[in-house]
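Pilot study result, target chain (378 residues):
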Amino acid sequence: MYDSSMAVTGNTTLRPVRRGKHKIFIGMSPGVGKTYRMLEEAHCLRQEGIDVVIGLLETHNRVETAQKAIGLEPVPRQHLTCAGITLTEMDTAAIIARQPQLVLVDELAHTNVPGAHREKRYQDVELILAVGIDVYSTVNIQHIESLNDTVARITGVVVRERIPDRVLDEADEVVVIDVTPETLEERLKDGKIYAPEKIDQSLQNFFKRRHLIALRELALREVADNIEGDAFQADNAPTTHVPHCNILERVLVCISTYPNAVQLIRRGARLASYMHGPLYCLFVDNPDRFLTKEESLHIEMCESLCKEFGGQFIRVQDQDVAKAIATAAQNYHISQIFIGESQRSRWKSLLRTSLTQKLLRSLKNIDIHIIATEKPST
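Predicted structure:
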């Protein structure tokens, strides 16, 4: 991860013109040992003469973790006042001024205190990387944006703090810290993860055996897909310019003003990622109908989410939704189309030709996926 291209003049280190390298330690849940492993590797590098500092460490009162941090230089946190309460956050400016070779940053998905320069901690990390400082960071699998709905179905918990998938995709190295569900349960019961009063509640909720098994599978699969994607791109890197050829799958997610559009985008993004192909999101705007303020904000949120996944958002005006989708599919060489199940009643569906039937008649050699999404509660 380190090179010898740094020049030192007096007390000033001149950094090479390169982006810092990012190594992420990921696990299926709190307590698997991500932070401990990060600190362990940091100590080894420090012994080799690498200048390592702690940018942000959360021990959660875990004795072993706190002891492992001894001997590593912490960069003091900044103090911010919010609603009359003084809180601390990572001091990104101080880290950059300190100019270490490597900085350790815990809990990558953390949301910063209101009033901080950046909303999310991963944005602070991106700034640190941009000035040429390497970063080690930690995150749990449930904080990956496209897995949000999957994790909610598995555990019943909606995770509020998330990072875009691109953060994981752009990392130079992703290491999964894997332990068995049995080992994790033992750690929890021994008080190595949470305080004693939280143990029984945790075992009955997030740390249920079936939850841990499913989350572990997600973590292992995510890293495997990440490695396969890198290998695919390396093996298929073009050596000369060739005309466009639709070798990769190309995914088009068709969204509407219904709330389930967010779930649809996430599902489509996962498929695009698995297939190593581009993602497109399409919204067909009926020129005869004005969107409400709430609907407009919803579409803007969908556009933002699409771009977080590295996709291209397409917005067209047309009274004929099927025609607009077919045109976009042809223009962007789409091979897979995602649409949500009909929100109309069964009676109305019988009276009108469905959107799916129209698409099947007008499009050839394109797979159409009808995605079942959770119904809004009444």
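One observation from the pilot: Residues 251-371 form a domain with the Rossmann fold fold (CATH 3.40.50.620). A full batch analysis is planned for the follow-on phase.
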